[in-house]
């Protein structure tokens, strides 16, 4: 068999496939995981009330801290840019070490911190911080809100006891959508 | 002899692939067949199903309920839920690796339904799925993080050299049945994908060590860290020294095993869209055995001697993954690897350079397309002896491939279809086409029925092409009156073709109760051009002296046959803290010479697998700190090797002290003092019996 006959045989097999599957443009309704998570984090802030001593009247900022290896790139900043919550501008602060973190009512703990989660929890004990993370079983391990993915959708669990201990008030609307961890 | 096409003498060698192999052997009229065009027609129709487009909105404007309905993709490659896969797939998780108590990768695999694992001796294993098991089992492709560890020297895997420490493994995905349309040639009866943890996931330093009756000493250490907030790394080192087993006559065997391995991995996120991985490893393995083989033309011809095989491996891999959009990504990967074997009978070294590109994209929410190309080059050198030699001694071979696969959701959430093929060109047989078609039907989320038809080939190994192996010697006059000294030599054949498989599979996976899952796979494999040998015309040779007669036994595609079987796996959570796994495998292999080949050409180099195999494991968390695992295994007799069936029993008990220390006690093969599982095939090393073994291990987080 000559080379060209071999080639034509391949083309004969592949042609219908190739012609069918090369589209001119691609579109998708899926969104990057962390773009959606960033939107959730912003939304959580709207449904949580902090103890009255968390903010001073003079505070004009609401900081969201990201602890550990930032998984959002710039998506979290993009999500909160120009937004306010309770008349405070929302800003994002990144830190790799708990010691560097300024007062933050919301702290996103990146997956990179999974191995010292217990240490972090211990240091945060008693502070009114809304902790959010996608570390496996984060809420079960004492965090406030833990993300998980179910059939490509983002879901979250809330550890009500942990929230109450620190004095956070979580709105019933948020609790209704969450899976509750006792 | 009509069917006997050529002897593989030095004169007749050609570097181009002979006619009659590879693509030329596609069954006549296949592309013209009505089935082919029906399949293509269905695919075309599906692909043109309207794809919904949606404009990009600011997600923070959405309500929480709407956010919860958005589907997401992660930067890392999309992991398919096992429940959705249209293939017989089983995943060994890191928890199950730990709880198995196994100290080597091959032994971890004993828990996988449908796999046949046997210890040949303390440092050699036979690992295969769906039949044809042997030390050089050639129908299973094995990859570590996308790097093939299947050597083209003998078409198979040196399990004793596989480097990564068990604790660095994230999971082992085992696919039974052909995976050739994605992974390429030699993924005939299955693919074993060993996937290590990322450096991020292994940021805990630890040290572990232990010893016991067979494991004379082993240890692992890991050092990990981060540079800035975008780069993490780890380095691991492991050592294992195993005592010899027992020979069937009861004396100690010569099969000690000593393995030192180191590896590193570095993960760097260039941006949220780009992930860069660099990893490498090295291992230095010493594995002993007694060989009995023909070493000279002088009486008594045969010699039994101890040989320590020294193997060294080196590998370096780089991979760049880029997410182009939520539904599309690109992976570029390249690796270099080296294998060097030093033995009394031969020395071998091989260098492999490999490059792969892969692009996945979706369009609409129903179509996903995956395509890629790859190139591999193997440069090797063999220095032989009278017993075993290769001609030519050096060989460079190139392999090029391209593959394409389309995944189509025909009915959202219920019916999915996959159609794809790999086309590759190799230096032995030319073009090979390996298509497959798969359909998965999910009437509801707890039930999936799937079916697949695929074609896969097993390409010739260097040995099958170029080997000269003296397997027997006859004194003067023994073959016929007046004949000189004679040897029987197993010879490679440059015109040897690929072995071919067309596989038909059907499977059912169900999750009928929250605590119970079950998986059933049935298959029918139709093989053609399987390896056998043909006795050729004897010829006189003057070197080495004295003048002797060589009777060639030339490797050829003499056989065909079928295999069919069933694999069932169950997992049941009796309690939150108590899980039970069970599996049963039935296998029947029937081989025969092809028309025109005499039955005496039917030499069993096709391996052997048990007809029935069963596995039962109970995994209990006795307390939060105490783990107890009890495993029972049944393996049927191996008729061809005259090895009896056996039942064995393993126990592992592990206790965690405080936060950082774990102590475990493991007993393996506890039921019998010793038992034989396999025989050394092809190379004549001494058989050995697996011994009862107990070891203790202690592990500290640093």
Write up this protein:
The complex is a heterodimer of chains A (182) and B (702). Chain A has 6 helices and 11 strands. Chain A is α/β, with parallel strands linked by helices. Chain A has a single domain, classed as Response regulator (Rossmann fold, 3-Layer(aba) Sandwich). In chain A, the strands form 2 sheets. In chain A, strands 4-5-3-6-7-8-9-11 form an 8-stranded mixed β-sheet. Chain A has a two-stranded antiparallel sheet with strand order 2-10. In chain A, a hairpin with a 2-residue loop joins strand 8 and strand 9. The longest helix of chain A is centred in the N-terminal third of the chain and has 19 residues, at 3-21. Chain A is globular and about 45 Å long. Residues 10-28 of chain A have low confidence and may be disordered. Chain B has 702 residues and is mainly β. Chain B has one domain (10-50, 74-283, 302-701): Maltoporin, Chain A. Chain B has 6 helices and 36 strands. Chain B has a 22-stranded antiparallel barrel. In chain B, a hairpin with a 2-residue loop joins strand 25 (499-513) and strand 26. The N and C termini of chain B lie far apart (70 Å). The model of chain B is unreliable at 1-19, 26-32, 44-56 and 73-79 (pLDDT under 50). Chains A and B meet through helix 1, strand 1, helix 2, helix 3 and strand 9 of A and helix 1, helix 2, strand 1, strand 16 and strand 20 of B.
| Structure class of chain B | mainly beta
Task: Tell how many strands the DSSP assignment of chain A holds.
Answer: 11
Largest pleated sheet of chain A: 8 strands, mixed
The strands making up the biggest β-sheet of chain A line up spatially as: 4-5-3-6-7-8-9-11
Percentage of residues assigned to helices of chain A: 25-40%
Main beta-sheet strand count, sense and barrel state of chain B: 22 strands, antiparallel, barrel
């Amino acid at each position: 068999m000559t080379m060209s006959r071999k080639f034509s045989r391949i083309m004969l097999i592949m042609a219908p496939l190739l012609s069918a599957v090369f589209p001119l443009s691609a579109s998708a309704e899926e969104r990057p995981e962390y773009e959606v998570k960033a939107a959730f984090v912003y939304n959580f802030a709207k449904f949580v009330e902090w103890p009255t001593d968390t903010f001073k009247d003079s505070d004009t900022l609401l900081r969201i801290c990201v602890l550990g290896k930032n998984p959002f790139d710039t998506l979290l900043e993009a999500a909160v840019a120009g937004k306010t919550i309770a008349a405070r501008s929302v800003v994002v602060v990144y830190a790799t070490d708990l010691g560097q973190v300024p007062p933050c009512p919301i702290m996103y703990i990146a997956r990179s911190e999974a191995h010292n989660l217990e240490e972090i929890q211990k240091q945060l004990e008693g502070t009114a911080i809304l902790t959010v993370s996608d570390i496996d079983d984060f809420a079960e391990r004492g965090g406030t809100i833990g993300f998980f993915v179910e059939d490509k959708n983002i879901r979250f669990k809330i550890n009500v006891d942990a929230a109450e201990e620190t004095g956070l008030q979580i709105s019933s609307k948020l609790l209704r959508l969450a899976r509750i961890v006792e | 002899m009509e069917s006997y096409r050529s002897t593989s003498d030095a004169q007749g060698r050609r570097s181009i692939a002979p006619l009659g192999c590879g693509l030329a052997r596609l069954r006549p009229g296949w592309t013209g067949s009505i089935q082919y065009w029906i399949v293509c027609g269905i695919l075309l129709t599906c692909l043109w199903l309207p794809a919904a487009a949606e404009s990009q909105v600011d997600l923070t404007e959405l309500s929480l309920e709407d956010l919860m309905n958005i589907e997401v993709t992660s930067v890392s490659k999309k992991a398919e839920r096992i429940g959705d896969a249209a293939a017989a797939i089983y995943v060994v998780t890191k928890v199950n690796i730990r709880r198995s108590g196994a100290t080597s990768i091959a032994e971890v695999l004993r828990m996988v339904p449908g796999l046949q694992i046997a210890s040949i001796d303390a440092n050699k294993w036979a690992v295969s799925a769906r039949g044809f098991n042997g030390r050089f089992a050639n129908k299973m492709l094995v990859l570590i993080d996308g790097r093939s560890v299947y050597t083209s020297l003998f078409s198979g895997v040196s399990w004793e050299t596989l480097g990564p420490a068990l604790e660095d493994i994230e999971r082992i995905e085992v696919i039974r049945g052909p995976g050739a349309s994605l992974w390429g040639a030699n993924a005939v009866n299955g693919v074993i994908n060993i996937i290590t943890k990322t450096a991020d996931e292994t940021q805990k330093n630890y040290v572990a060590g232990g010893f016991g009756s067979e494991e004379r000493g082993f240890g692992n250490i890991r050092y990990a860290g981060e540079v800035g907030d975008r780069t993490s790394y780890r380095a691991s080192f492991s050592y294992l020294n195993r005592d010899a087993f027992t020979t069937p006559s009861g004396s100690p065997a010569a099969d000690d095993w000593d393995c030192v391995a180191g590896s590193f991995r570095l993960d760097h996120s260039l941006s949220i869209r780009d992930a860069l991985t660099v990893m490498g490893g090295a291992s230095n393995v010493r594995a002993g055995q007694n060989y009995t083989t023909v070493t000279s033309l002088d009486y008594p011809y045969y010699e039994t001697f101890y040989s320590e095989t020294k193997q060294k491996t080196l590998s370096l891999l780089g991979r760049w993954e880029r997410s182009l959009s939520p539904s599309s990504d690109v992976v570029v990967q390249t690796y270099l690897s080296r294998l060097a074997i030093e033995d009394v009978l031969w020395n071998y070294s091989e260098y492999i350079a490999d490059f792969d590109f892969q692009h996945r994209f979706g369009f609409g929410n129903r179509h996903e397309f995956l395509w890629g190309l790859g190139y591999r080059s193997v440069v090797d050198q063999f220095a032989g002896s009278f017993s075993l030699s290769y001609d030519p001694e050096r060989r460079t071979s190139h392999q090029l491939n391209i593959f394409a696969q389309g995944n189509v959701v025909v009915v959202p959430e219920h019916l999915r279809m996959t159609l794809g093929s790999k086309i590759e060109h190799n230096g032995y047989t030319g073009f090979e086409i390996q298509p497959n078609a798969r359909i998965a039907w999910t009437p509801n989320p707890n039930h999936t029925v799937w079916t697949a038809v695929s074609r896969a080939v097993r390409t010739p190994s260097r040995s099958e092409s170029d080997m000269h192996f003296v397997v027997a010697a006859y004194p003067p006059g023994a073959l016929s009156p007046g004949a000189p000294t004679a040897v029987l030599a197993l010879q490679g054949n440059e015109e040897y073709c690929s072995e071919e498989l067309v596989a038909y599979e059907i499977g059912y996976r169900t999750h009928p109760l929250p605590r119970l899952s079950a998986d059933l796979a049935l298959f029918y494999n139709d093989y053609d051009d399987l390896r056998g040998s043909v006795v050729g015309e004897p010829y006189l040779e003057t070197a080495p002296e004295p003048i002797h007669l060589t009777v060639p036994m030339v490797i050829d595609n003499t056989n065909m046959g079928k295999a069919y079987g069933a694999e069932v796996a169950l997992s049941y959570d009796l309690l939150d803290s108590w899980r039970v796994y069970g599996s049963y495998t039935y296998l029947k292999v029937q081989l025969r010479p092809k028309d025109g080949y005499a039955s005496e050409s039917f030499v069993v180099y096709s391996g052997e697998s048990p007809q029935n195999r069963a596995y039962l494991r109970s995994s209990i968390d006795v307390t939060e700190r105490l783990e107890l695992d009890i495993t029972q295994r049944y393996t049927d007799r191996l008729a061809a090797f005259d090895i009896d069936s056996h039942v064995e029993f393993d126990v592992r008990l592990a206790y965690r002290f405080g936060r950082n220390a774990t102590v475990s006690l493991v007993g393996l093969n506890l039921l019998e003092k010793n038992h034989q599982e396999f025989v050394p095939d092809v190379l004549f090393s001494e058989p050995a019996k697996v011994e009862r073994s107990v070891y203790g291990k202690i592990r500290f987080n640093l």
